[in-house]
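so my prof wants the structure for this chain in the C-alpha cells format not the other one, which i didnt know existed until like an hour ago. anyway here's the sequence
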Amino acid sequence: MIDRLIGALDPLKGALIAMPTIDGQRGNPVVWSRRFFSDLMNVEGDIGARHLIGRYSEAVAEVPLTGAAALTDVDTPEALEAVRAELEGT
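here's what i got, hopefully its the right format
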C-alpha cells in the first residue's frame, strides 16, 4: 500500500498528497509531499490533517485499493493494540 501511495505522488502533475480509497471512501495512511511539512507540524489535537486535505484538494491523488486496512485509523497506542488483537484472532 505504501509503495502504491508513494508512486502516486507526481509533483509535475500536481499530485502532492496521496491517499488510499476503498469503494470511494478515503482512508489512511496519507502520504504528503515535503511541501506540506510545516503545515503538518502545526496540526494540534486529534483532528488529524483533514482540514489540510480540504484546503489543498487540488493536490490530492486518490489511490483505489481493496481490503479494509486503509479504513482503520491507528493513531493511539490503544488503537494499535486493538488492531493487533484483531489480527491475532484471525
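also thought this was worth mentioning. The longest helix spans residues 77-88.
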